[in-house]
Amino acid sequence: MVFSNRPLQLILVALVASLPLFSSANNSVDSVKAATVEKVEVAAHHGEATETKVLSKEEKAEADRKAFVKHHLLDSHDFTLFSYGKDEEHQKHFGFALPVILIDNGLQVFSSSKFEHGEAVAESNGNYYKINHHDGKVYKTDAEGTFSENEHGHVTNAQPIDLSITKNVLMIIVVGLIMFLLFAGLGKSYKKNGSIAKGAGRFFEPIIIYIRDEIAIPNIGEKHYKKYMSFLLTIFFFIWFLNMFGLTPLGVNITGNLAVTASLAILTYLITTFTAKKDYWKHIFWMPGVPVPMKFVLAPIELLGTIIKPFSLTIRLYANMLAGHVVLMTLIALMYKFNSPIGSPLSFMLAFVLSLLEVLVALLQAYIFTMLSALYFGSASEEHHHEEAHH
Question: How far apart are CA 371 and CA 10, in angstroms?
């Protein structure tokens, strides 16, 4: 692996680090309503009777804080910017609905406003659906919205295939459009101004050159790096932009979603697999210079290593971003728990410092994912000259 001896340009770090000054760390209210737990029903071991326990004010507040952190990490079927009037009978939400697309006895398409932020049952062509507050998923129910659970507390209702445009999906589309418009404009400015970037391109041009000169060429080689550059640039800016949106008041947690990071890692795996040269597979299945009995031992290990690589990409990005969101949201929740002139400002300062650190982590994770992808591409396209090595 080749790492650059030069750090990223100081101006890049300074500009990126200043972004939290223009926005708060995260959305204070997630789009899935963090419902106040007013009573807990405990099923009796014998019979259908239930015991109702009324929670105290402190227990309600603690339940709200836990739900606040938990629901921030979940995706949602609407896009709520903020809510108010929690102490009133009906909490008001400011945002917009998104299309719900389900496959269940045909195609079911309706607006997420029918769910009323997870509090109502939505009806479509005689079918009834409701969002479960614990996992944020849509389940098929009856007209009353009844959920059935097993002994482990898991919902057993039928779950339709969900192809909805959720909050995370919408932000992925938005980031894709931003990247298309941004870099299409950068390409046009090169043509109009004699290969000189204008506007926002002046900020992104050094980053593009850095990825080419310090990531792609050293790890892939000058002969083959060009065919991988489009993917490396796309994956770097895509992850970076998604990470940065996660630190805005929009409150999205896209790269903290295992499905998203796994999809990105699978793309790296597929490109590595289908562009690999014969030498790459030869070193996996019949490693040269190794005794024949050992080749049969090493071949399964090497093959397993090709699968472990994308798995490590998936977990590294997912775990780092998820942990950052959990810690940051917990510190914000502690401001309300302390509710004192000392504890609350201390939690605020810790959250502010952590948000600055998260900005650097957002950039660092994009860099690491791109660097490792380039390393895998380099190993797949590397040409070995075994015969020459013996002379």
Answer: 20
Average pLDDT of the residues of the chain: 78
Question: pLDDT digits over 59-68, tens only?
Answer: 666 666 666 6
CA-nearest of 117, 137, 129 to 75 is 137
125 exposed, middle or buried (CB, 10 Å; 0-12, 13-18, 19+)?
Answer: exposed
* Domain segments of the chain as ranges: 10-23+168-386, 39-43+52-165
* Beta strand residue intervals within 221-380, DSSP E: none
Bridge partners (DSSP) listed for residue 87: none
Which token pair is 248?
């805005």
Any idea what DSSP says for residue 3?
-
What is the helix (H) or strand (E) element at residue 359, kind and residue range?
A: helix 343-381
Instruction: Spell out the residues 6+ positions from residue 306 whose beta carbon is closer than 8 angstroms to its own.
Output: 269, 272, 273, 284
Token pair listed for 346: 């201390």
Closest CA to 165 of 98, 114, 214: 98
Mode of pairing for the β-strands spanning 50-54 and 78-84: unpaired
| Contact between residue 77 and residue 100 where contact means Cβ atoms under 8 Å apart | yes
pLDDT confidence of 374, banded at 50, 70, 90? very high
Rounded-to-integer distance, Cα 296 and Cα 46, Å: 59
pLDDT tens by residue, 334-373: 776 766 666 677 877 888 888 888 899 999 999 999 999 9
Q: Is residue 17 pLDDT above 70, yes or no?
A: no
Q: How many other C-beta atoms can be found within 10 angstroms of the C-beta atom of residue 193?
A: 11
Measured CA to CA, the distance from residue 141 to residue 123 in angstroms comes to 10
Structure tokens belonging to residue 154:
């898991």
Quick: pLDDT tens for 259-292. 999 999 999 999 999 988 888 887 777 777 778 7
Length of the chain: 391
List phi, psi (to 5°) of 230: -60, -40
Structure token digits, residue 254: 């896209």
Confidence of residue 36 (pLDDT cuts 50, 70, 90): very low
Beta bridge partners of 40: 53
